Amino acid sequence: MEITETVVGVVLSGGRSSRMGGGDKCLLRLGGEPVLARILHRLRPQVTEVIINANGDPSRFADFGLPVIADSIDGLAGPLAGVHAGLEWVKAYASGVRSVVTVASDTPFFPSDLVQRFLSVLEDDPTLAIAASSEGVHPVVGLWPVTIAPQIEESLLRGMRKAGAFTKDHGAIEVFFEPARIGERLVDPFFNINRPEDLALADALLREDP
Q: Are 189 and 179 in contact (CB under 8 A)?
């Protein structure tokens, strides 16, 4: 896929995965490889660089050969803190990049044209855009202008923890994505793996997909 603008991809993996019993959901096996590997297969062709947002020991992601950045706001403040960390990294190390795209590390079926669809809503300036589907709005999957980092930091320091609340307050454009066909089934493109049964379903879907 042709990349029409320099965009850095941030994989958000800073959660506690309590419904999976703790640990990193993205390192669980799906279809014979880590979930994170499948995320990267989809994201890398769409962006110019990828970084991982994760807290704790970064060496557990060493096999992927990517920068691993922790939240810069203390307190495990959730995905919004991960977005902020990604934007701050871009400001420091990727001068000239206007936008960051974020995806959750447990959504293995997100669209292969995600970034291009987001970029299609831009006019002259970077725009805050988030994904939507028939299942609802997915504020963790979004295109974030680098210039919005100070507003996110201010919101986090005021105690805001919900990415959805922030995107609503800041007039994010919702970009709708149709269901994805996997094998014979139509699946929400932002299906996420929260529980062991979700992982089992994702594995079953991949076995059905020729």
A: yes
- Kindly report, residue by residue over 178-196, the tens digit of the pLDDT: 999 887 889 999 999 999 9
Look at residue 151 and tell me if it is in a domain: yes
CA 157 – CA 137 distance, rounded (Å): 24
Q: What is the residue range of 67's domain? A: 7-208
Q: Give the mean model confidence (pLDDT) for residues 122-131.
A: 86
1 part of a folded domain: no
For residue 130, the one-letter residue type is I
**In this structure, is residue 2 part of a structural domain?**
no
Q: Two tokens at 132?
A: 């939507």
Strands, E assignment, 105-165: 129-133, 136-145
pLDDT exceeds 60 at position 48 = yes
Tell me if 204 is assigned to some domain: yes
pTM more than 0.90: yes
Assess contact for 138 and 181: CB atoms under 8 A: no
Q: What is the CATH number of the domain that holds 47?
A: 3.90.550.10
